Amino acid sequence: MSRLSADYSENTVADIDNSTEFKNIQEKVKQRPLNRRKLLRRTIITASMAVIFGVLACITFLVLEPVFSNILHPEEEPEIVEIPGDTADEISPEDMMLEEEQPEPSIQIIEKTETIDPIDMYKQQYNNMYRVAMEVRRSMVTVTSVNQDTDWFNNQYENKGNSSGLYVANNGRELLILCRSEAIEQAETLYITFNDSTVATGTVKGSDSNTGLSVVAVQIADLDAELVDKLVPAMLGSSRSSGIIGIPVIAIGRPYSNSESVGYGMITSKGNIISKSDQNYERLTTDIYGSMDATGILVNLSGEVLGIIDQSYNEEDMENIISALAISDLKQTIERMSNGRSKAYLGINGFDVSREANEMWGVPYGAYVTGIVMDSPAMNAGIQSGDVIVSIDDTEITKFSDYTDYLDGKAPESVVFVSLLRQSGEEYREITLEVTLEEAK
Fold it and tell me: Domain check: are 313 and 364 in the same one?
């Protein structure tokens, strides 16, 4: 038994010795040296992949976010704005009065009635006109253009300019405001101030170089729903009546260069034609004395807009007389700008062929060409002054407004076939020319 104990003791000691030796061996094992260059390379690769992944994720989000937004929350397209034009056979009340047979004057016995104070009648008349002006003013806004400028000492300041604007349409997504282009063309920011002092940011929807008018859009989402419900688009009347001369009118907006000013008077003339490229405009003059920088509108006593105030065509001896572009000649332009459409451009000046010219000199009815704009599609196609345009494509042209109406419905880059009559000796020969329209600048 003592021998077994001795053997056990020897084995135990040996095991302890072996364990100690193994432990010593483990402690002597050295780790692999760190490769710093490889670690740096892997770190750079990992960081680069993370950056690339982040950039790709951002680009993918930016590209696909509008797509998914339109799918999940489809945005309604704005409605097409339609400005009712003047009916060709329309006869105004003024014309009807002129055309009616006037009865023979008869002697009537006037019974003595209660005397009416002329001053009271005068006051009542102007009170009625003022009420019309206040009602129309619901369609008026103030357009403020703001741009940054620098003085001589390199200090920045804001330069502001105010102009009248006319609310003309609502396309379901935007309120559309008509105003003068010169008042906003240098603006970095546009602010529209409504009658309740609400201020909103506007963006230019379209501009017209012929008339110097622009349409500014205000997002309905940026306005209070109660305000939008209260706003009323302006009523655009007809300025083509021959009986318009002599009727009372009200100048509303900024006829005296300050806000909320009003002028009363009457139409004194309407026969002044302003000839522009592919369009003629009639100018209305009044006896209202105002500012040379006046802006705003002319309305009749029914509150219908007859003209957009424009002082740039006044003669030197009538610089302060309120004048306006006739609204009937502007309706198509307003509609086109409100829908954001570009204007097709041919490049001619012209007018209607009168009955006297047709009967006395045999000039055929159509759009008589008085001038060609340099480097225009008309010049490039070979149209000349003195030509009479009688049809475009399959549409008959009997007067210059027919030409204007057809051209307004075409898009830039369209190809049209213009048939015209050109005088050759004592006769007119027909020529058909192919013309590619351009976009008006």
Answer: no
Q: What would the 3-class secondary structure string for 273-303 be?
A: EEEECCEEEEEEEEEEECCCCCEEEEECCCC
What is the CA angle 40-46-48, rounded to 5?
A: 100
* Judgement on whether residues 210 and 251 belong to the same structural domain of the protein: no
Query: pLDDT tens, 427-439?
Result: 999 999 999 999 9
N-to-C CA span, the chain: 122
> Does 289 fall in a domain?
yes
The alpha helices in 73-213, defined as continuous H runs, are: 93-99, 118-136
Is 253 domain-assigned? yes
**CA 190 – CA 388 distance, rounded (Å):** 44
Helix 331-338 vs helix 400-408: crossing angle, to nearest 10 = 10
State mean pLDDT over 340-345: 93
The DSSP call for residue 75 is: P
**Which pairing describes strands 279-289 and 295-299: parallel, antiparallel, or unpaired?**
unpaired
Half-sphere exposure of 151 (CA within 13 A, CB side): 6
Domain co-membership, 348 together with 435: yes
Residue pLDDT, tens place only, 53-67: 777 777 777 766 665
Q: Quick one: DSSP state of residue 236?
A: B
CA–CA gap between residue 142 and residue 290 (Å, rounded): 18
Looking at 170, 205, 230, the residue that finishes a domain is 230
Q: Is 358 helix (H, G, I), strand (E, B) or coil?
A: helix
**Residue where a domain stops, chosen among 230, 257, 272:** 230
Residue 412 within a domain: yes
